[in-house]
Write a structure and sequence with these properties.
- The N terminus is likely disordered.
- The protein has 2 domains: 295 residues, Rossmann fold, CATH 3.40.50; 148 residues, no CATH class.
- The chain is globular.
- Helices cover 29% and strands 17% of the residues.
- It is of the alpha/beta class.
- The chain contains 12 helices and 16 strands.
């Protein structure tokens, strides 16, 4: 009789188990009915494996092929704002198939003025495979407004709440909603949460570590737009005004900034720079891996009395040195850091290097003035609401948070030295540099322009690095980098203050033959 009861119980349990498992999770369509206060879920659809999404704008890249997933779209706090315009925090969450989910959540940062819900793929700085394909549930957001005139449309700032959302609130809101959606869909919460962003996304990551220190376990902040007003002062006014002082003039007396250096002068400058600093890491390879140890002084190129060949006139050298030193006020105080002399400073393109300026910058024509009142210009260039200046991260670190920074040495928009300065300032506020090293690392990327490109190895897996640190306790002393500019080459990006140094033997194109020192 007892055996019969046990057999019956086993049969009942066997029958109930599949039903229980089915009830423990929800279908993609079910997510559309999820009720969250202040949230409208507009759609929840299955996206088949192999799907390719068209470019979000003409000439842009397509997205895919994608792994199978459930895409959820919605709006948080939809409302009518200034001028009768509709505002709300748009978001999207991509949920991998249940057997493909790795149990973690990753949120991707925005760019420029945001205003677009990018596909929640997590493709940046995640190595060979985007986060979604690696099993992460991924979220993205427009940070509270819709861009109407491209990626640098800041017209939304006339609405106070929209500005607050962009400045610091939206990402934390979306993270909270995304976690609820994840827990609903998989019938269990995400084990760990990560944020990865560059430029505006890098700033967002810093803000999250400072103002919402328990939302994410790991954060990657690349080329952060830390102090946009002051960086714009540097590259949009200080540097062109310095160049104007030595640039040739047209018939009307207007400085021709694009003619500051001839092609041969620019080549001479770069050749001398590389000869001075390229091989400091043990191999001459067109990259400067020890930028902070680079002792290049452009003054060595200044023409001496009677010299006209193989040199640059002193006025031009003085203008370049002034430009790269960064803006200073009338008292000689540094208002914004200077810029590194690096392999990519003469690159041309959308955001040209600081030694290759044309007539126009990112936001229109450069000024033709030859003087600048730095104090006046800097007076309104700072915005504490947006800028991630807080250095006391004791709650973030005590909660087990890990924070990785990276910055391109040839970034022509935001100085790598500004990010370095912030990183160094973490020490005094958090028990010293050695203590900070237990939860934060900085990686400088030789040759890289703003968030990628340049004469650089700009492909690396910072997501994997922060995940291994959070979940396995493996601190990232080095991260391997590759890139299209140098096919077949790999190098370790070393955590500051170390840099990659060739061991002196073995293939110099192979990262395994370099050490961090």
């Amino acid at each position: 009789m007892k055996q019969s009861n046990l057999l019956l119980l086993a049969m009942i349990t066997t029958c109930i188990a599949p039903v229980a498992r089915a009830l423990s999770t929800n279908s993609c369509a079910d997510v559309a009915n999820l009720q969250i206060d202040g949230v409208e879920i507009s759609s929840a659809v299955l996206v088949p494996a192999g799907t390719t999404v068209p470019p979000p704008y003409p000439g842009g890249p397509s997205t895919g092929p994608l792994p199978a997933h459930c895409r959820v779209d919605g709006v948080i706090h939809r409302r009518e704002g200034a001028g009768g315009e509709e505002f709300g925090i748009g978001f999207a969450v991509a949920l991998p198939e249940r057997d493909a989910w790795n149990g973690d959540f990753m949120m991707q940062g925005g760019g420029g003025g945001n205003g677009v819900v990018a596909y929640p793929l997590g493709a940046s700085y995640s190595g060979e495979k985007p986060a979604l394909a690696r099993g992460f549930a991924v979220a993205s957001t427009d940070s509270g407004h819709k861009a109407k005139n491209g990626g640098f449309d800041f017209s939304f700032m006339r609405d106070q709440q929209a500005y607050l959302d962009f400045a610091y609130q939206a990402n934390a809101e979306v993270a909270g909603v995304s976690k609820q959606i994840i827990a609903h869909y998989y019938a269990k919460p995400a084990a760990f949460s990560y944020f990865v962003g560059c430029s505006t996304g890098g700033r967002e990551g810093m803000i999250l570590s400072q103002r919402f220190p328990t939302v994410f376990n790991g954060i990657v902040a690349g080329d952060p737009a830390m102090r946009t007003g002051l960086s714009n002062l540097a590259i949009g006014k200080w540097i062109p005004v310095a160049y104007n002082q030595a640039a040739p003039k047209d018939e009307s007396g207007k400085p021709q900034i694009e003619k500051l250096l001839s092609a041969s002068e620019r080549k001479l400058f770069m050749d001398t720079l590389m000869k001075t600093c390229d091989a400091r890491d043990g191999v001459a390879d067109g990259m400067i891996f020890d930028p902070l140890g680079c002792d290049f002084d452009p003054a060595v190129l200044a023409c001496k009395a009677g010299q006209s060949e193989g040199c640059i006139v002193p006025e031009k050298i003085a203008a370049i040195k002034k430009a790269f030193a960064g803006p200073k006020n009338v008292y000689g105080a540094q208002v914004y850091p200077g810029f590194l002399y690096d392999a990519g400073i003469a690159m041309t393109g959308f955001a040209p290097g600081l030694l290759a300026m044309g007539q126009n910058g990112l936001f229109g024509p450069y000024p033709t003035a030859t003087e600048i009142d730095v104090d006046k210009e800097a007076l309104h260039a700072s915005d504490p609401l947006v800028e991630p200046a807080l250095t006391n991260l004791s709650t973030f670190s005590a909660n087990g948070g890990k924070l990785i920074f990276f910055h391109g040495d040839s970034d022509p928009w935001f100085s790598a030295l500004d990010t370095l300065g912030y990183y160094q300032s973490l020490g005094p506020a958090n028990g010293g540099a050695d203590k900070v090293d237990e939860w934060s690392r900085l990686f400088l990327v030789p040759g890289m322009a703003h968030c990628g490109g340049g004469l650089a190895l700009d492909r690396f897996d910072m997501l994997g690095a922060v995940v291994n640190w959070v979940e396995k306790g493996t601190a990232p002393d080095a991260v391997i980098a590759t890139g299209q500019t140098f096919p077949g080459r790999s190098r370790p990006l070393c955590a500051y203050p170390k840099h990659a140094q060739y061991t002196g033997s073995g293939d110099s194109e192979d990262a395994r033959n370099f050490r961090c020192q």
